Amino acid sequence: MPELTDVVDGLLHPETQVDERGVDLTVAAIHEVAAPGRVDFGGDELAEADLEPCELTRRNPDDEYQWWHLDAGQYVVQYNEFFVGEDPMHLQARNKVLARGASHPSLRVDDHLPLVPLSVGGEGIMIKENARVSTLRPLVPGPVDG
């Protein structure tokens, strides 16, 4: 099995992002869906949604990094990192994100990190640039349904 640092490019701080359980992924951008995309049966009418970047603000004038102030709703997250592994992995939201009323689906990652939908509930959430929001973990084989 390859080292976890070998399956992800673009790590901002490997010492913090990688442990024996997985690799934490950091947020590079958060978008709102500004106009709908299209999905059809055959793919002839498939069209990307128009995404608008969410605005960043500084909490303090001398802050190096800014924050996204997200109201309750649906967003799309883009990561700083890139998946370069050969074996599929499992992507899940970090517990610290879940405990603050936000979530994203758990996904199998085969060949690249997709843009991921983020659901925000309640009164919203504040997310700092480069915050660790997801974890990429090795797939654990489970029982076969039958």
Q: Care to give the gist of this entry?
A:
Helix content is 5%, strand content 43%. With 146 residues, the chain is mainly beta.
Largest sheet: 9 strands, antiparallel
Amount of helix: under 10%
Q: Which percent range describes the beta-strand content?
A: 35-45%
Number of strands: 14
Radius of gyration, in angstroms, nearest whole number: 17 Å
Q: Structural class, from secondary structure content?
A: mainly beta
| Alpha plus pi helix count | 2
CATH topology: Deoxyuridine 5'-Triphosphate Nucleotidohydrolase, Chain A
N-end to C-end Cα span: 28 Å
- CATH superfamily, by name, is Deoxyuridine triphosphatase (dUTPase)
Unreliable spans are: none
How many domains make up the coordinates? 1
Tell the overall outline.
globular
Question: Averaged pLDDT, please?
Answer: 93
Determine and state the CATH class.
Answer: Mainly Beta
Order of helices and strands: EHEEEEEEEEHEEEEE
- Under the CATH scheme, the architecture is Distorted Sandwich
Question: How would you describe this structure to a colleague?
Answer:
The strands form three sheets. Strands 2, 3, 4, 7, 9, 10, 11, 12 and 14 form a nine-stranded antiparallel β-sheet that branches. Strand 2 (18-19) and strand 3 form a beta hairpin. The chain has a single domain (4-36, 49-59, 66-138), classed as Deoxyuridine triphosphatase (dUTPase) (Deoxyuridine 5'-Triphosphate Nucleotidohydrolase, Chain A, Distorted Sandwich), CATH 2.70.40. It has 146 residues and is mainly beta. It contains two helices and 14 strands.
